[in-house]
Amino acid sequence: MSDLSHLLANNRAWAARMERAEPGFFRGLASQQTPRYLWIGCADSRVPANEIIGLPPGEVFVHRNVANLVVHSDLNCLSVLDYALSVLHITDIIVCGHYNCGGINAALQPSEGRIVDHWIRHVRDIAKHYKADLERLTTTAEQNHRLCELNVAVQVVHVRESPVLQAARHEVNVHGWIYDVADGRLQDLTPMVEEVRALEPSVRV
Ligand code: CO
After folding, report:
1. Stated pTM of the model
2. Which listed residue, 40, 47, 105, 182, has the most CB atoms within 10 A of its CB?
3. Which residues surround ligand 1, an ion (CB under 5 A)?
4. 42 an active-site residue?
């Protein structure tokens, strides 16, 4: 069995550091969480939600999966969304994609017939839907880049159209962001959501 004692040692040092910086920090969090944000992001190890927006434990409710998808029938994501809205009363949902996403790149390659290809199929559908827009770009890198952005915009629409969100009894803002793993910077794509919807009238509800 591999030895993970270095991780447990890291954890003890981290907990001590946190407690030194803010005595009572963990005691305060023990009985409740009151995060304002729900983060829906990619499972990619390079995009750790709290860390890249500089927030400590307790501030962000997080759901991550391959290629940050919000699939209408995904009970896992819907449960997170429901809990975030009806119990935590979260007011801001951030769908965050990232460039160089393996899930997105895979959607532009032939299928390898693995389990994950079934999941990626959702991204292939987006690529098919916006084929004309993608084909205006000449290089594979540009197409991957654009598909990462289109995917964020489409997932924002999925959240906004979700019956769970529409049943919310308070105002909820849904944001679309993209993270560049090459420089650590986030970019707000929310204005692009309307532009993307205009590209393809059939996605309107
Ligand atoms: Co990814």
Report:
1. 0.94
2. 40
3. 42, 44, 101, 103
4. yes
